[in-house]
Amino acid sequence: MKIGNFCIDSKTCSVSDESLINYKFKIVDREDSIYIMKSLKNKTEIKNMINAHIEDGVALTKFLYWIKNLKINNLTEKKIEKKLENFRKISKNYLYPSFDTIAGSGPNGAVIHYRSDRFSNRELKEDDLLLIDSGGQYKWGTTDVTRTVCFSNVPNKVKNIFTRVLKGHIAVALSNIKKERNGHNIDKIARKSLKTVGLDYRHGTGHGVGAFLNVHEGPQGISKYNFIELKEGMIVSNEPGFYKKNYFGIRIENLVFIKKIRSNLLFENLTMAPIDTDLINYKMLNKKEERYLFKYHFDVYNNISPFLNKNEKKWLAKLI
User: Fold this and answer.
1) Is the pTM of this model over 0.70?
2) Residue 12 lies inside a defined structural domain of this protein
3) SS3 of the chain: helix, strand, coil, percent, to 5
4) Tens of pLDDT along 304-317?
5) Which of 56, 101, 165, 295 has the most CB atoms at less than 10 Å from its CB?
């Protein structure tokens, strides 16, 4: 006999707990109001996340300069993961990774949730694409960023796909959130350029992120199935991609927060790390996209260059 009502949030309550509760009570499924409140970051949390991403951007930029200017020799995925971790450890405010780093070279980059192990750990080759997805927990914030980089001239077909992923990434960044309202609608925008040539990717375009909490945090997100209204203060990832099995993977990921400017809601980049311009077919970008890319790299340079050495600064400046 059931003795009363019991409220649960099905998004966070486990199946085992739900079955135990259901034995004694009638379950009323409601959304946990704290879940929504937690997703709305206050000004202090946003400020601290910005600072954490500048520190993380320094580490990432130094890493990208290092790997793009390195003569590749006996460099394995595990060595790449360790090197990026060492760059992050330079910061006294860095604590530990926000998740296990994904360093997928060549065909391993096509495995969306790849993890290198002693069997899969392959040497990087000059004609590989490297997909590296990583993040850090700093004393005041959480980061999550993906970059895809090349080390030689790549075929135009690959450049064109990378550029289509970039066009989707930029389309998300420039979204009119008041008009689109939720991640379901913005997800469509992210896939548009790929879909015009019959391509797509099998994951959501973005997930909610906590401020020194879970690197994956809801209820907001950018996916086909997320209808949660996007609001000021929410943080999400912007990470469209494309994966060709047994060949390569491409993903471009920034974290963004929702900022209110007058009556508009807009995405503002948190991530400050350069995008590999060697993979871009600029003929495919329109003026709006070119302006966005210029401004993004200009912002990266302004925030990161004071912490770089002379050679790193010169390299970063060339991307603007």
Assistant:
1) yes
2) no
3) 40, 20, 40
4) 999 999 999 999 99
5) 56
